[in-house]
Design brief:
The complex is a heterodimer of chains A (469) and B (378). Chain A has a single domain, classed as Amidase signature (AS) domain (Amidase signature (AS) enzymes). In chain A, 37% of the residues lie in helices and 15% in strands. Chain A is built from 15 helices and 15 strands. The longest helix of chain A has 26 residues. Chain A is globular, with a radius of gyration of 20 Å. Chain B has 378 residues and is of the alpha/beta class. Helices cover 35% and strands 21% of the residues of chain B. In chain B, the strands form 2 sheets. An 8-stranded mixed beta sheet of chain B has the order 6-7-8-3-9-10-12-11, with helices on both faces. The mean pLDDT of chain B is 86. Classes of the chains: A alpha/beta (469), B alpha/beta (378).
Amino acid sequence: MSSLPTTATAIAAAFAGGEVSAREIAAAALERIAAHNPALNAYTEVTAERALAEADALDAARRRGEAAPALAAVPYGVKNLFDVAGMTTLAGARLLAGNPPAAADATLIQRMHSAGGLLTGALNMDALAYGFTTENTHYGATRNPHDPTRTAGGSSGGSGAAVAAGLVPIALGSDTNGSIRVPASLCGVFGLKPTYGRLPRSGSFPFVHGLDHLGPLAASAADLALAYDALQGPDGRDPACAQRVIEPTTDVLTRGLDGLRVARLAGYFDDQAGAAARAASERAARALGSLGDIVLPEVAAARAAAFVITAAEGGALHLQALRDRPDDFEPLSRERLLAGALMPALWVEQAQKLRAWFRRRTLEVFRDVDLLIAPATPVTATLLGQETMVINGRALPTRPSMGLLTQPISFIGLPVAVAPLWPGGAALPIGVQLIAAPWREDVCLRAAWALQSAGVAAVPPAPTSINAR
Amino acid sequence: MSQLLEAIDLVKRFPVRSKGRKKLLHAVDGLNFHIDAGETVGLVGESGCGKSTLVRLLTRTLDSTSGHVRFRGQGIGLIAARAMADHPLRREIQMVFQDPTDSLNPRYTARQTIAEAVHLLTDTRGWAAIDSAVEVAAAQVGLPPELLDRYPHQLSGGQKARVGIARAIVVKPRLLVLDEPTAALDVSVQAVILQLLDRLKREMAMSFLFVSHDLNVVRLLCDRVMVMYLGQIVESGPAREVFARPLHPYTRALIASLPGGHGNDADLLVGGDPQSPIDPDAHRCRLFGRCPRGAERCQTQAPPLREISRGRSAACHFVAPTEREVFIDAALTVHKLHLPPARRAALTTEFDRVADMARQVQSVRLPDDTAPAPQFRP
């Protein structure tokens, strides 16, 4: 298309060096979106005017001699559960389509704006973030850029597809049970689910308060760190935000893994993984010098507990609307929300207890190890509409099972980066989870960078024409 | 009532060859049921569902692959089929065959046929004693004494059927197994034989197992009914209740297809071939593909036979145990929610999924002092 830089790091550097204007970058991004989005259905709304206005402001600031911020002129998109000033926050749900427009940007969008980012639009997702496939009955399915007959993963499927197709180098998503990591894995991009409480969620539509995380998806490990650093910082409006000071990762990214002890998660994480997923996890473990395999206790029960808490809290959140406007709900998740609202309190109490226990037991592992490796999804992208998938000879329902490997980790809030692998040069990617102790996103990101530098993980050049496939 | 017969995880698989590869035909696939003393039980299902194999397993003319059959508390599954002929239990379980012509020795008179059973299976000895037993049995089945010295070819179909029944009851079994007892008879004769069986059931202190694809036979005669499909029991319960309110989609389809029934067309099976009994997918409901209610879950999780309410069981995801139904309905009422049937069924499926998850959580024994802790803090 052009010789314009494509990664966020390169764009910001080219802009800072005066090689390119923000307007040129914005126009090129909007052109790519216009060309490819109809086939992908990644965007539910394109904010062209805003992107161009933000670009013009950056160009004007540069003419005034102001220093370029970290993400200067970097186009990005946001999952449509983020508030964007002047737009109704959909959260993938027709249920919310009649709400008034948001008065202000979400905190993280404000931070992207301050860092020089150009907001290109809002991205598709599973309704109310309840799903792993972005098969949205009301707003259409998002298609996988590597095979448009397949899912982009979810619930941040629009975010994964937009980055994988090269429309934007950075997208923001949310992850309650795997909604950043699943699309990163299935679309073949980098993703970061930070520690629970690290990034403020103010100005985003909630799902499960005690499990919701926000984070970036990106076209490279360096882009991921760049975005994450711009998003950090305390916040007074999200009560779960831990108010930690900014702990920059961009500076330490290239340090490699010197001094870090690495292990691979076996047991459940092998049993619930197909051959490609296991191969990816083993390949990453070899590349990062894994010391061996570790088996965590009762992971299946931890995943089950995450499922219970999610259904209960999600159901409680939407109970009033389930009563008043059931027809506006996504049929694929409506009755699951309802079942969650009706379940006995005992089940939730037991799930919360298990969570406390599982967290304590898992944290013990980090006395001996700094980084844990596991596959991000059991299989590569499934076909849109596919009801069952087969893992090690067992047929499982596709939509809830895609999160089997991500759920136990977010359940206890650990930070995770996903790096995309292409086992055996396959046409479809699959991600590995790079898991660290609480607040050690730097370790996750260093591992992602190391895998990319070693050529093990990669985000290949965007397909030049998706329509031609 | 005490249990007369109990089948536990009863399995019969036949090795078959398909496209040159060895496979297994699952004729009887993990049956669990019981027949009480004095009870009349109907076993219904289309041909090929495994009814006849089950009968042969119960009458010990065929060895099971695995599982147990207990009769009066004693395991009979371990008695090899070929040893059964001389076993004392042989008298206690008697069989009335489908075709009275085929099952009678053409060179024996009716009297000789009935007497032979007395001679082989009881301690009665002496011509007079045996003949007396034969005449009592003949009277019980309504066979006039003057017909006793006729050969089968000199008897009508209904008369031959009476001989077959007399031969079985003359040894005073505890369980009478009747394999399609009226299928080979003219319609006019069928009704008469059904009346006879109904009278015998009330007069004689024994249990009956009626095996039939004819629901009317079962409806007329049975206390309880078990519905079989592709080697498995998919529904069981009191006959009156099952016919009035069938739970399983297959039972509903059987009843809806009865001539003159109050069938609802929506209950009929949808197009599509039945699944093969050869190496069936253990995770898939056997009815999937023909079931009007088939859903995603039915392909990945075979519904187990479970008790729905007292005495009633069904193997269908869309049929929920009463306690759960009561719970869900109560919760819906509390929350002022009213769901149309399709959503109500989907809710049960989702509720089951969450319940499965909760069970997994409950399976972990946690230390007593475990309590939810606060989130990570810096």
